[in-house]
């Protein structure tokens, strides 16, 4: 099956940069990835934490000792649950407008998004696609807790609420970006999926994980977007490969050997038109990033793409269904290393595309 969008090894970014100026961050995005720009997250800025960006609208959400928690014992909590479900169901059923709802993203929590929306119509030529991102339900639900410290993902009702919240927020984001007139890629960033099956998250069931991520994928598809899932460590990759996801984004620099063992699942994913976002630029290791060059990373691509093609995939089609990305966001890097990662992402993509 031919994918709806063929990136042909174009460069794309994951999300964050170690800056405090949204205009400068956007300038760097347009300089290095003009074909598929994204909105940038800046962890240095107040309000850019996972909970602040995406938790607004959760019933019982309060700040306590400098962290966000869900206070289920607060007066009026049950009433806030009722109001949440009324609003969510109204939007889901089409009787209420999604855009001005509680599921929108505020400018002070996602300034990079609104900068992308402002700048894209000014670009000539226009981009081939635009990219957004949202926190995944497992990462969100295992990082946000009730007051006694228990993660909300383990509470069936709170898990249902967080999934509805994120799914409608994903729909809102895709709808806003789609108004720019370009295909929309929305990545679900869910690194906590790596804890599935380990002692880290005892009691985290496969069904709960796949249903939660699947709800966000379905939400993206409902608005006409392409859904990606980004996981920057090792995982049970069948959780994603066997889902309805369009793009799988992974750390191909550090975890390729663990990924490629899922031979049949990878082959099925590519045969149905799935896209692999190859995280070949080692942004999770400053030492590796300092050492590597576009030439050394090109050699890695040649070896690793040949292994995947060896599963029975035409190598030219594999390249057509590939993106070149950093392994993860760059928000924790120094500015100098982040700039190197941006440059390597562009250079590696150009070198691969020249060889096709």
């Amino acid at each position: 099956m031919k994918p709806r969008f063929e990136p042909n090894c174009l460069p794309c970014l994951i999300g964050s940069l170690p800056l405090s100026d949204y205009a400068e961050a956007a300038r760097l995005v347009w300089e290095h990835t003009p074909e598929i720009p994204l909105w940038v997250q800046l962890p240095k800025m107040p309000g850019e934490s996972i909970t602040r960006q995406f938790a607004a609208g959760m019933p019982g959400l309060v700040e306590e000792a400098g962290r966000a928690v869900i206070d289920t014992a607060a007066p009026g909590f049950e009433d806030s649950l009722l109001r949440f479900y009324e609003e969510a169901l109204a939007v889901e059923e089409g009787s209420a407008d999604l855009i001005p709802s509680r599921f929108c993203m505020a400018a002070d929590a996602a300034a990079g998004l609104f900068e992308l929306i402002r700048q894209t119509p000014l670009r000539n030529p226009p981009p081939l696609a635009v990219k957004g991102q949202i926190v995944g339900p497992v990462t969100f639900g295992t990082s946000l807790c009730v007051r006694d410290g228990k993660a909300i993902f383990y509470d069936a009702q709170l898990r249902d609420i967080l999934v509805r919240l994120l799914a409608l927020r994903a729909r809102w984001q895709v709808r806003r970006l789609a108004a720019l007139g370009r295909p929309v890629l929305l990545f679900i960033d869910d690194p906590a999926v790596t804890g599935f099956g380990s002692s880290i998250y005892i009691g985290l069931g496969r069904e709960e994980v796949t249903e939660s991520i699947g709800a966000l994928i379905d939400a993206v598809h409902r608005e006409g977007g392409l859904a990606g899932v980004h996981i920057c460590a090792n995982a049970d990759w069948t959780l994603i490969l066997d889902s309805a996801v369009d793009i799988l984004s992974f750390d191909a620099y550090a975890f390729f050997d663990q990924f490629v063992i899922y031979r049949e699942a990878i082959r099925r994913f590519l045969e149905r038109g799935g896209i692999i976002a190859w995280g070949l630029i080692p942004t999770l290791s400053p030492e590796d990033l300092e050492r590597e060059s576009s030439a050394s990373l090109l050699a890695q691509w040649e070896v690793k793409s040949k292994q995947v093609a060896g599963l029975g995939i035409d190598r030219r089609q594999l390249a057509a269904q590939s993106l070149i990305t950093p392994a993860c966001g760059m928000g924790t890097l120094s500015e100098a290393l982040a700039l190197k990662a941006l440059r390597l992402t562009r250079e590696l993509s150009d070198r691969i595309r020249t060889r096709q």
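The chain has one domain: 10-55+107-355. Residues 129 and 182 are 5 Å apart (CA to CA).
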